[in-house]
Write a structure and sequence with these properties.
With about 270 residues, the protein is an alpha/beta fold. Helix content is about 35%, strand content about 15%. It contains 9 helices and 11 strands. The structure holds phosphoenolpyruvate (PEP) and manganese (II) ion.
């Protein structure tokens, strides 16, 4: 591969802060950043109680999908603009930054004024028009790995964003499709090791979509931390069984609290 902006040899490791001026900013690239919340924004009351609990247990950034890329067009498609406004309201009540997915370049002007960070989902990793558009913004971007993307394809997708001027990119390993079907995806932690070794970008891991099974989320989270990732994005809910989407992989806030305690312990052991 030719020398890229994302190569370690092209400059210092990329570090930045996440959050607009009305929230507690979070630095990525030093301590492990924990991002959590439901798969989808469901309604304001549920989102408010989830956000409050996440803040109490020390989660740094709220997540929630308002524009949802669902496999079936008959499944809940998300609340759209209303969902973004709900995220904004509850995140500000708790001074917590939030991230939400942008599925279409036409939605950027609607989402960007509210959100602290944008997510490019797995299904859009190859959407070069969208990558170029978010590359023109000055807001952090989580770039999820395409479910069938090679590491090189995923890295070049990040390069598209950097090339337009936006260096605030976080890679997110979320599992790939393999012949294995016990788990929803196969969580490829090799990619984390490669990125930490050769590239300047921070990398986080999504063990929720990476496994599809809530009983595996804590184990794979700790494995990801041991591999050297910069953080985790985990689906959680106050009533996981009632989650409107991805209930099977959603953990309770209590489970997340236990996990977070273990992550902090691991951080002291690993020395970062
Ligand atoms: C999500 O994080 O809500 C999501 C849809 O994930 P992915 O794009 O990785 O499937
Ligand atoms: Mn989900």
């Amino acid at each position: 591969m030719t020398k890229l902006l994302i190569d370690k040899t092209s400059g210092e490791d990329i570090k930045f802060t996440i959050g607009k001026d009305d929230v507690e900013k979070v630095a990525i690239g030093d301590k492990k950043v924990i991002i959590s919340g439901p798969c989808s924004v469901e309604d304001i009351d549920t989102m408010r109680s989830i956000c409050k609990r996440l803040k109490e247990i020390g989660v740094h950034i709220l997540r929630g999908g308002a524009f949802k890329p669902r496999t079936s067009p008959y499944d809940f498609q998300g609340l759209g603009e209303e969902g973004v406004k709900i995220l904004h309201e509850v995140s500000r009540e708790n001074k917590m930054p939030f991230v939400t997915e942008v599925m279409d370049a036409r939605h950027i002007e609607l989402i960007e004024p509210y959100a602290d960070m944008l997510q490019i989902g797995s299904r859009n990793m190859y959407n070069y028009t969208l990558l170029k558009e978010v590359g023109k913004l000055d807001i952090p971007i989580i770039l999820k790995r395409g479910m069938s993307a090679t590491l090189s394809e995923w890295l070049l997708a990040a390069e598209y964003i950097l090339k337009e001027g936006n260096e605030k990119v976080i890679m997110c390993e979320r599992g790939i499709r393999t012949f294995e079907n016990y788990t929803r995806n196969t969580l490829d932690l090799n990619s984390v090791a490669v990125i930490k070794n050769k590239y300047r970008l921070p990398v986080i891991v999504d063990p929720s979509h990476g496994t599809g099974l809530r009983e595996l989320v804590s184990t794979m989270s700790l494995s990801a931390i041991a591999t050297g990732c910069d953080g985790l994005i985990i689906e959680s809910h106050t009533h996981p069984d009632n989650a409107v989407s991805d209930a099977r992989q959603t953990i309770s806030i209590e489970t997340l609290k236990d996990l977070n305690d273990k992550i902090k312990l691991m951080e002291t052991i690993l020395g970062n």
